Amino acid sequence: MLLDDLEIMGNLTIRKDQQIITYSEDHNVSYRFLTPLPSPAYSPEAMLISFEIAARSQDSDQPIHHHSEEMIYVLEGRLTVPIGETDIILEAGDSTVIQKNMPHIYKNYEAVPVKGISSISPPIWGRMDLMNN
Fold it and tell me: Residue 35 in contact with residue 102, Cβ under 8 Å?
């Protein structure tokens, strides 16, 4: 193994205290990036994030769409995901796939926060609120 390979491998491990966290403007939604950000040495082909949505909140005002497939897994709570005209209700342990270019939004109608993990492939780098472009 070459020295450059070791350096790249070291940058592929993200410790919990090194994860980038972003928040919605109202701080009702947080996203924790579990995937390394792209660099000249390596650009991930998928993006893995964890999310937490406060009680009775949603991740955006309007449904979003992007040119990627998105997989959602709920860790805690109950998440409603309107995809097009259909409401998908996910409880802890449930998962779903959102096909590319499908309008969707994450909604938490419950009195407790919802936590989950989302994988997006190919990844969408940049601000989460710019995904409609």
Answer: no
Average pLDDT over residues 11-34: 91
Total of domains in the chain: 1
Residue whose C-alpha is closest to residue 77's, from 51, 50, 114: 114
CATH number of the domain encompassing residue 116 = 2.60.120.10
Burial class (CB in 10 A: 0-12, 13-18, 19+), 7: exposed
Mean pLDDT of 61-66: 88
Rounded to the nearest 5 degrees, what angle is found at the Cα of 38, between the Cα atoms of 125 and 124?
Answer: 20
What pLDDT, on the 0 to 100 scale, is given for residue 124? 80
Q: Report the sign of the C-alpha dihedral through residues 38, 44, 46, 48, in that order.
A: negative
Q: What is the DSSP code string of 69-87?
A: EEEEEEEESEEEEEETTEE
